[in-house]
Amino acid sequence: MRVGIIHQFFRRCTPALSARAFSTKSLRERLVEILPQKQEAIMKLNREHGDKIVGTCNVSQCIGGMRSVKCMLWETSLLDSQEGIRFQGYTIPELQEVLPAYEGGTIGKHEPLPESILWLLMTGEIPTEAEVRGLTAELHSRAELPDHIEPMIRAFPEHMHPMTQLSSAVLALQTESKFVAAYNSGMNKTMFWDPTLEDCLDLIAKLPRIAALIYRQTFHDGVICDYDSSLDYSANFNRMLGFPAEGKGTNTEGIGFDELMRMYLTIHCDHEGGNASAHATHLVGSTLSDPYLSLSGGLNALAGPLHGLANQEVLKWTIEFQKKILDAGKEINHNTVHEAAWNTLKAGQVIPGFGHAVLRKTDPRYMVQREFALKYMPDDPLFGVVKTMYEVIPGVLTEHGKTKNPWPNVDAHSGCLLQYYGLVEEDFYTCLFGVSRAFGVLSQLFWDRGLGLPLERPKSITSEWIREHFADEDKFSNFSHKDGQFDQTSVQVP
């Protein structure tokens, strides 16, 4: 089945890949070519379909967090409840087959570079290896921090959460905003995309150094190694975090934490626009706040327990789940996990890491991590727990009958992978998520300005408005509508 799907995929994308196989354009050069076509396509779409209805909103959705309300444009990715995420039309397995890997790696065998997914998110195209190497070099050239950032991070209180530090540091970078300078100089709004692109690339380039400073200062001795522009984005990030090329978990083929970081940053980069961090970034950006202010807003949303903080919450729960079974003198197997899962539910508690607001099947991002673990760390005890939970808990939740989606999501797996490679400081995990998510939300922010999308301003209502608005309908609540007439259904009518 998978072979057939891959063959269909290659038939679909081969012409486009062949046409650009030797391209060495920079990202900016390619976007300048694409932008007019995309602008015309959006204007044509609005002219031809501007009055069409794409969705509705009932009272339950209004009260319940606007779940599934179709009301915003997000070009970089689309989430399907059955299929999972598609980045610019491509599934994660498809991208693993075609996106360039690290220099010396093999496409389809090694993990795609985050630089590759950034190019795809921005342009909608599979980049050539030359384009990716050029983008890596460009990000390195933009990575130097202004003088005030490192002292500020080192002066933060020791107990300040890493996500608070990350959001604050991004805000402090706003002094460097090229968009602000251009806006204040009176730039024509049709060109707002240009300094926005500059800010987005500058910010993405600077995030690894900022996150690494936060990690080293908060959890270790504060010493951080020099920036190494000879490495790819992920490998350099790992060195600054303090993880050597041949660190814990590296196998005989040299596959280690660098490959995990490449995979992690790629699969967490975007998840369409309705999630809290993406929507917050888009909303703030729609006011013409610059990318620094916008991303900081998104990071603040990501820091919440119901969003990005969930991965460390799930890990803590999983470790405690494992401990309870082992402390009872039992082994981790299907029977003991089944029993412990039911005990959790009967106690009125939830099993975190399972279910998703949109997905109704196993999260493809979970499956990619599972395949990585099966390949590189199959005997890790914590992965053994996660693996057994995957095999047992969906059945328990289905039997329990109160979960629409009993399958695991991305948060159910990432923690055990990071633990295996030695990044054990759980409070830092959401910062990794934030570095990754910047790729997607800032790519869309570029297109927000490129397409001239307006200020977001939905209409809110009060609960009293709802009661008054539907008061007349409530008078006829015992009637049914048939053939244009009301027929009373609660009593017999002669």
Detailed description of the structure:
By secondary structure, this protein is mainly alpha-helical. Among the domains are: 2-47 and 75-139, no CATH class; 310-420, Cytochrome p450-Terp, domain 2 (Orthogonal Bundle), CATH 1.10.230.10. The chain has helices at 2-19, 27-49, 59-63, 92-98, 114-123, 129-141, 149-155, 162-172, 178-184, 193-219, 233-241, 257-267, 276-285, 291-302, 310-327, 334-346, 364-376, 381-400, 411-420, 429-450, 463-469, 471-475, and strands at 77-80, 84-87, 90-91, 479-482, 485-488. Strands 1-2-3 form a 3-stranded antiparallel sheet. Strands 4-5 form a two-stranded antiparallel sheet. Helix 8 (162-172) packs antiparallel against helix 10 (193-219), helix 12 (257-267) crosses helix 20 (429-450) and helix 13 (276-285) crosses helix 20 (429-450). The longest helix is centred in the middle third of the chain and has 27 residues, at 193-219.
